[in-house]
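Operator note (shift B, R.M.): manual run for Bifunctional NAD(P)H-hydrate repair enzyme requested after the automated queue skipped it. Running by hand, logging everything below so the morning shift can see what happened. Input copied straight from the record, untouched. If output looks odd, do not overwrite the archive copy; leave it for review.
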Amino acid sequence: MSRPILTAEQMRAAEAAAIDAGIAETVLMEQAGRALAEAVRLYAGPRETLILCGPGNNGGDGYVAARFLKNAGYTVRVAALAEPTADAAKWARGQWDGPVESFAAATEAPIIIDCLFGTGLSRGLEPVVAERLLLLVDKALVAVACDLPSGVASDDGTLLSAIGNYDLTVSFGALKPAHRLMPAMSRMGRTVLADIGIDPGADWFEIERPDLPSLDPAGHKYSRGLVHCLAGQMPGAIVLAATAAAKSGAGYVRVSTSLPISGLPSSVVQSGGADLQDERIGCILVGPGLGDVPPVLTLALTAPKPIVIDADGIGLVGDPERLHGHDVILTPHEGEFGKLFGKLEGSKAERALEAARRSQSVVVYKGPDTLVAAPDGRLGFAPPAPAWLATAGTGDVLAGMIAAMRARGLEAFDAACAGVWLHGRAAEAAGPHMIADDLLEAIPSVL
Ligand SMILES: NC(=O)C1=CN([C@@H]2O[C@H](COP(=O)(O)OP(=O)(O)OC[C@H]3O[C@@H](n4cnc5c(N)ncnc54)[C@H](O)[C@@H]3O)[C@@H](O)[C@H]2O)[C@@H](O)CC1
Ligand SMILES: Nc1ncnc2c1ncn2[C@@H]1O[C@H](COP(=O)(O)OP(=O)(O)O)[C@@H](O)[C@H]1O
Ligand SMILES: [K+]
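Run finished. Output pasted below as returned.
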């Protein structure tokens, strides 16, 4: 099961539904606080712990965790920013039998647990509070965020006030968009999701290891998937994309090109013509290295086949409505996204979904926080990928991997998610000094 992702409002609704179904709010908080304490115990080991509690339910989780850690033998200090205002948090505060210091006077500790604010944060922290929190987090050996680092906007991952770098973030019931959106994502450390007994039932989720089609013992090269690539003015990019498709398990990869291309594996077939009516084609790939050649994109769109449109091809689409009725996966980075969709409103998640609706296509909105959006509202958030993917040609590799997944028979949204997940893991396997060519070599090790 992939990890669900909910907005703050959806999270409140899921909690309300659990409460309607007979689970007391204090029980949810008890589960959350216990899970927080358990994660800290496993991750950080026994060290003096300072728990910072805010006025809402995030603070309530902190009082519960304090009780569990104290019972486990920890030296626990609790510092409160304000007395609890929420009912469940008042209850949790009442269950804590130790002293409570003032936040303003709290001094550092080896383990800090930040339970100031979670999904209820409505504005940035006051500057003195933000500054003190930053200092305590900075001095800690292990900094832990309860649900979210305080200062992060849950729904869009923006920082409403300055936050430090955390080692561990423990979330409850579902992840929040901020756990997988920049800049917040890069500050959270490991992200643990605890089950607190609610049913999130989400359309949004973290992309997980794909379920790849098994090899048919009676299969042949065409039944394993034929990817047809259309070359353009700069052949290097199509070499990366076609090679990636071949290494991702497509049974046959073909490149249409007017001039011979060097650097392709011998197994990739070059052809002067482009018979896109060929029944056996599983996916067409157009865009990498295409240049400004609109007829090539037009040609691809005449074929009744799944198409991956990447790079220059995206800029040539013109109007997203042109893609209606076609079976398309678009793979834009920020610049290409802006070229096709203009300036859309909202969080990156909302922009991705709006783009998918407008184009009636699956949109892979790339970046350090890649999203995969479908026109029907499904949204996949990539797990963190290494920053060393920011090197020329890695996008071409991704396009080829997605085309292979599509040709191998995965549905468009699943193919895009599979490609994104495998691409990230291949980058991890290739290591920090990789170039796009090394990424190709790493693909078979993650399939
Ligand atoms: N509601 C539930 O059933 C559960 C909630 N849980 C926890 O509860 C959290 C959400 O709780 P809340 O909705 O109470 O929200 P928070 O605890 O995030 O904080 C809300 C409170 O802070 C105030 N506030 C917001 N921004 C502020 C700022 N910048 N400066 C000062 N005050 C500010 C609000 O007016 C409100 O009083 C989750 O993140 C999670 O940790 C968990 O205990 C699981 C169960
Ligand atoms: N800082 C980063 N952290 C993780 N992944 C990144 C980062 N920057 C870029 N990427 C990934 O690297 C790839 C770059 O693709 P793209 O921008 O199309 O590059 P190119 O056109 O050179 O191939 C995308 O998959 C993107 O998600
Ligand atoms: K917090």
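Quick read of the result: Residues 238 and 296 are 14 Å apart (CA to CA). The longest strand covers residues 281-286.
Leaving this for review. - R.M.
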